[in-house]
Amino acid sequence: xxxxxxxxxxGHQGPGLALRWAKSGRYRVIIGSREAAKAHAxxxxxxxxxxxxxxxxxxxxEAAATAxxxxxxxxxxxxxxxxxSIRTQLAGKVLVDVTVPxxxxxxxxxxxxxxxxxxxxxxxxxxxxxxxxxxxxxxxxTHLSNLDDPVECDVLVCGDDKDAKAEAIALAEAAGxxxxxxxxxxxxVVVEGLTAILIGINKRYNADGAGIKVTGLP
Length: 218
Ligand SMILES: NC(=O)c1ccc[n+]([C@@H]2O[C@H](COP(=O)([O-])OP(=O)(O)OC[C@H]3O[C@@H](n4cnc5c(N)ncnc54)[C@H](OP(=O)(O)O)[C@@H]3O)[C@@H](O)[C@H]2O)c1
Prior knowledge:
Elements: E1 2-7, H1 13-24, E2 27-33, H2 36-50, E3 55-59, H3 60-66, E4 69-72, H4 79-90, E5 94-97, H5 118-126, E6 131-134, H6 141-145, E7 154-159, H7 162-174, E8 178-181, H8 188-204
Parallel strand pairs: 1-2, 1-4, 2-3, 4-5, 5-6, 7-8
Antiparallel strand pairs: 6-7
Helix pairs in contact: 1-2, 3-4, 4-5
Bound molecules: NADP nicotinamide-adenine-dinucleotide phosphate.
């Protein structure tokens, strides 16, 4: 069984993903944090919901070192510093970047960061030793954490390595969603930008879980 670690998994997006991956029985799941006690506390609360000790908590670096696949769920202003803090542990692995380069307070406007996208910045920072893909930017934490409901969203996956994209698509499927190969890493700018659009739609339509579904596929 592969191990997936969620760096910054103590916030909004990480716990819902952890719950769904742990419940699937397909992955060993680790919550990473800058504080060990916080990681343990979140893991314990998820295990209480799951009714079994399926999720572990660790410091980010230990979590990244232990994992086969590393998922990053931190705010954009913590993106590069967090990657720097685990870059040694990431060597040879797949990094699934969930980060959206939002620019508060105008979080419903698309913001394109200097490196083209958060995902492209991660790949540039980490170099060829790490295969970076983007995924899960368009899925709301509210849906993910409500384990009783299916998540009616597709997960667009972009990256330059086919096998790494397949890992992210498998993670999407384990979490109960359809993962779609959305092309090269260059396309991540659109996937990340869609999140700002969905946040705006949530605000205008008084919702908290707008998502996307691709139609017309067999
Ligand atoms: N929430 C959503 O519905 C949603 C949906 C799609 C995409 N996203 C994207 O996913 C990412 C995570 O979202 P989120 O809502 O889970 O974020 P969050 O709750 O604000 O933060 C997640 C975790 O990041 C760590 N963190 C926060 N500030 C940090 C800093 N300055 N330096 C280092 N680590 C820091 C914290 O972990 P520790 O304190 O434990 O280290 C925190 O629990 C974001 O880029 C967001 O845009 C979110």
